[in-house]
Amino acid sequence: MRKNIVAGNWKMNTTVPEGVKLAKEVNDAVAAAGDLKCDVVIGVPFTHLTAVKAVIDINKVGLAAENCADHTSGAYTGEVSAPMVASTGANYVILGHSERRGYYGETYEILKNKVDLALESGLKIIFCCGESLEERENGSFKEVIKAELADSLFHLSAEAFANIVIAYEPIWAIGTGKTATSDQAQEVHAFIRGLVAEKYGEQVANDTTILYGGSCKPANAPELFAKPDIDGGLIGGASLKAESFMGIVTAF
After folding, report:
1. Counting beta carbons within 10 angstroms of the beta carbon of residue 103, is it exposed (0 to 12), middle (13 to 18) or buried (19 or more)?
2. Could you write out the DSSP letters of every residue in 168-230?
3. Per-residue confidence (pLDDT) for residue 176, from 0 to 100
4. What is the pLDDT at residue 32?
5. Which of 154, 156, 205, 233 has the smallest count of CB within 10 Å of its CB?
6. How many CA atoms lie within 13 A of 223 on its CB side?
7. Residue 61: which of 22, 95, 96 has the closest Cα?
8. Using CA atoms, how far apart are residues 178 and 174, in angstroms rounded to an integer?
9. Is 167 helix (H, G, I), strand (E, B) or coil?
10. Distance between CA 188 and CA 244 in Å, rounded?
11. pLDDT for 178 beyond 90
12. pLDDT of amino acid 215
C-alpha cells in the first residue's frame, strides 16, 4: 500500500528562529491530531535543517532539504551535498522543482546525478515534474512530463525507485492562485502512474506515491485528495502557517 503524504516546501522563507517556531507548531499539531491518514514532511532551507531537526519528532514529521548538489564534495563554493544534508538528520530531499529547473538551469542530467547521490546518502526523494502554461495549451505536456521522469529517474532499479515520491506540479499553478481542476490533476497523476507501470510493472506503480502541488489549500485539498491517483500534496505558500498546513493534512 502506498503512503499518503502531505509535504511542505517553505522555499526561501523564514529566518532560523521563525522556522524553528513554525516547525514546533507543526510538530505539536501533528502530535495533538493523533491518528492521521497521511505522513507529514516539512521541506526547509539548508540553514534550518539542524535546528528544526532538534525540535521535531522525526518519526511523526519528516524533514526535507529543498535541494542538494550534483557533487559529493569538492571546490563547489556555496553548494550543499547530499551527504551534508543526510548528516543533519533530514530524511528527504526535494529535487527537480520547476523553480530550480527554470531559474538555475537544472537539466535532466544534473537531476539524474542528484538523484543518484541522494539515494546513495540514504535520502528519500520528492521528485517534481510539471508543464508550463504554453506546454499545457499546445498539448505537449504529457511528452514533457514523460521526459522529465524518464531521463532523470527511470535508470533506477525497482528497488531504488521505491525511495522516490513523485510530485506533479503544473508550473502555471505554482504561486499563481490557479489550481488544476481535480479532474485535470487526476488525469496527469494516472498518466504518471501508467509511465511507472510501463517501466517497473503494476505493483511498483501501485506502491508509488504521487503528490499534487500548485496552489493546494485547505479549501480544495479534500476534492483533490479524493481522486484515486492523488496521494497528497507538496504545499508551498499554505505550508508557511501551521493552521493552513494542518488544514491540508487533515483533508484526508
Report:
1. exposed
2. E--GGGSSSS----HHHHHHHHHHHHHHHHHHH-HHHHHH--EEE-SS--TTTHHHHHTSTT-
3. 79
4. 97
5. 154
6. 11
7. 22
8. 8
9. strand
10. 26
11. no
12. 86
Burial (CB count <10 Å: 0-12, 13-18, 19+), residue 13:
middle
User: Cα separation of 14 and 239, whole Å?
Assistant: 12
User: Cβ(211)–Cβ(231) under 8 Å?
Assistant: yes
pLDDT given for residue 180 in this prediction? 86
The C-alpha atoms of residue 143 and residue 164 are separated, in whole angstroms, by: 20
Across the strands, what pairs with 234? 7
Catalytic residue selected from 66, 135, 148, 169 = 169
pLDDT computed for residue 173 by the predictor? 87
Asked about 48 being catalytic, the answer comes back as no
Catalytic residue among 48, 97, 131, 148: 97
Strand partners, 235: 8
Backbone φ and ψ for 210, nearest 5 degrees, come out as -125, 120
pLDDT band at 183 (very low <50, low <70, confident <90, very high): very high
Q: Cα angle at 208 between 191 and 164, to 5 degrees?
A: 110
99 is a catalytic site residue: no
